[in-house]
Amino acid sequence: MAEVALGTGGAPARPRRRHVGWVPYALLAPGLLWLLVFFAAPMFTLGSQSLQEGNVFDGYVFTGNVSVYADALQKYWPHLLRSVGYAGAATVFALLLAYPLAYVIAQKAGRFQNLMLVLVVAPFFTSFLIRTLAWRTILSDTGPVTELAQRLHITDLLQAANLINNDTLLSSKFAVIAGLTYNFLPFMILPLYASLDRLDHRLVEAAEDLYASPFQAFRHVTWPMSLPGVVAGTLLTFIPAAGDYINSRLLGNTQTIMIGQVIDTQFLRVLDYPLAAALSFVLLLLILALVTTYVRRAGTEELV
Amino acid sequence: MTDRHPLDLTSPATRAALSRGLTTRRAVMAGAFGIGASLSLAACGSEGTGGGTTGGGAAPTAKAAQDLSDTEKVVNWSNWTQYIDVSEDEKSRPSLDAFTKETGIEVNYTEDYNDNDEFYAKVRPLLAAGEDTGRDVWCSTDWMVARLIQQGYVQELDYGNIPNGQANLVESLKDVEFDPGRKFSLPWQSGFAGIAYNLDATGGKKIESMTQLLTDPALKGKVTLLTEMRDTLGLVLLELGKDPANFTDADFEAAMDMLRKAKDSGQLKGFTGNDYTDGLTKGDIAACVAWTGDIVQLQFENEAVQYALPEAGFTLWSDNFVIPALAKHKKNAETLINYYYQPAVMAEVEAWVNYIPPVQGTREELEKIDAELAGNELIVPSDEVLQGAHVFRGLTAEEEQKYSSEFADLTAS
Prior knowledge:
heterodimer; A: mainly alpha; MetI-like fold; two-stranded antiparallel sheet; 2 strands; B: alpha/beta; D-Maltodextrin-Binding Protein, domain 2; 2 domains; ten-stranded mixed beta sheet; 19 helices
């Protein structure tokens, strides 16, 4: 109604628009400045650092040495693949865990909705590091979880699947992927919740009225409607998981080292800054390529 | 540099000297460090202007900041974990409290030194940029002290403020090669690296050699090694019958092969700094390369934790107080060092940390506190034990670069 009322007096609105031309730029300025200082500038530094040569005693000098990228890829491609693999697995598990939960919170929780959301976010009140360290205690070799898994022969199963390399859970592929899944789960739940919360239940009812089975209704109504949430959630989980270095360090062994941990070590222990910078770039490009392909495939341009 | 070996431990002269006890072991150790000299070569060859303050041939001198000691009664001390006495309830550190009471100087004691390389990486950018690290004193291992001195990152000590250091430092540690005359550093503790294991996790099995540690299937996936190259590699070299004080490139490769094989077979859980203690007590780590003092401490918590000094030999080292460039409370730091160089105070620390003290007369004081500890071979080692102790030789700049990057590849990929 208000719009209609304004519409009648439309004429004076036009000259005003010219005056406010700078407003969008002013609004963008803080964001752009942020991007420049905390993204563009470090990127440039990192890029130029990757092309330096030297050692930590004499200092590094820019020489435009591109071969470091070849070295980095040749030496660390297994770690890159492993990181993508672990992050991918963690993303799939997180989706499987998060979707039903988000659906319940959004559609069925009623007055418990807020409480459940708080519970999802609650672990974030403690630090990432503490949460991961807690997993070390949970999966401890002498702890009840390991003992139960051994009694139920879950450890044998995991061992057969080559996810653990002795009869304990800690320090294994299994532990790293479990840690990644846990740590990034809320990033999956929240976007899913947001898109499922907007889902108009009458559409599902309409599908059922048209003789759709519950599965068909989900397949053709709920799932497509929640796709933006799925895409956002998978991206928010996969990207940080692929670069993570805490989980592999605290929960893994020497055969589960992810690329983030390699970069961390090269930067902070070996002090081979060019190699570390090159690896960071390779990881960045790899993730960018994967994500672009994924988003194209998912066709989110139409969905969002 | 490579021909700079320590004294031959088996020579009659050394043996005679060894019979006098700890003193001589330290002399042996002192002889081992060609590292200071080797690093000066590195500086000579440098033409870099990149990040460091190194540039000319001579070692640069560390800049001093305006000393605020008299107006700000604090000192910021970074140290390794479990490296100082704590009270029964683990809420306070008695020797530090007594220091504050005596001098009025507050100590901000931070346990953020987990590993030499890691700590160096943390402070290097600040030191290189000529900025204050926010720390007034920390404890670095010998070879790291050599590097810090060479790069001009640590300040000369003012012995006017550390009379006890001058008087009580054990004779043999007075003139180490990386710091002649102890101008820049004073030892905090010395110790051995050997093998530790948790009897509960090994199923009652004793682990007494590196070969067993690296190949026993009972330990698969439950073994950790130290990221400290000189300790881990030193033990493997000894196991192969080589002397860490006198080894070749080929010996290094042979030792690395042994470590790589262990890693590829899934024997290793990982490489750690000081942080293996928790896992070892719980039994998540069945056996590991460990430092003596840590294990004596852990035994109070869990009797299943055992220590073995391998028959093939083991390594020894010291950690030393240094005062970084631009430290704001240099005089307070020196007062602190002076305080710990009293035998009675050091004995109090020793009764808890259980390493080998560098202060003369500590043993006698320790006997008053705890005669049993004073009789512990790991704290007051006998000549027999000392025979097995070895030091890692100084490395040339090229060796340092090559070995440490190869070793880092092993530990982190």
